Amino acid sequence: MKKFENLPQDADTQILLSFETKIGETDCVFQSWIFDSIQGNSLIFHAEELEHLNDEKLKSWINAESEIVQNKSSMNVSRHSDRHNFVFVNFDFEVLR
């Protein structure tokens, strides 16, 4: 999908795995990454497809539609409409030794 070809990338983040998938009927990208000795995962969506969901409803929707998130209490949502048109839902963080 060319839909996600312009994903923002942080130079200090090492992407371990990245693939396009769906949560329910909504397209997204799953990424597993390492940043500052923390390994985590992200689901990345186009912001306009999620305008109707606030952060809490978005997290609940993901958990209802998928079992991808293992540690549901660690989920956070990042929206930076001033910098890009994507919503990042980050989860399953692990500190690496």
Can you characterise this structure?
The chain has 97 residues and is mostly beta strands. The mean pLDDT is 94. It has one domain (2-95): Phosphorylase Kinase, domain 1, CATH 3.30.200. The protein has a 5-stranded antiparallel sheet, with helices on one face. It has one helix at residues 55-65, and strands at 14-23, 26-35, 38-46, 76-79, 86-95. 11% of the residues lie in helices and 44% in strands. The chain has 1 helix and 5 strands.
Question: Concise description?
Answer:
This protein is mainly beta and 97 residues long.
Features:
single chain; 97 residues; mainly beta; Phosphorylase Kinase, domain 1; 5-stranded antiparallel β-sheet; 1 helix; 11% helix
Quote the distance from N terminus to C terminus. 36 Å
Number of helices: 1
Structural class: mainly beta
Largest beta sheet, briefly?
Answer: 5 strands, antiparallel
Order of helices and strands: EEEHEE
> In CATH terms, what is the fold-level topology?
Phosphorylase Kinase, domain 1
Number of domains: 1
Residue stretches low in confidence (pLDDT < 50, at least 5 long) are: none
Shape verdict: globular
- Mean pLDDT metric: 94
Name the strands of the widest sheet in spatial order: 1-2-3-5-4
Helix content: 10-25%
Topology:
Elements: E1 14-23, E2 26-35, E3 38-46, H1 55-65, E4 76-79, E5 86-95
Antiparallel strand pairs: 1-2, 2-3, 3-5, 4-5
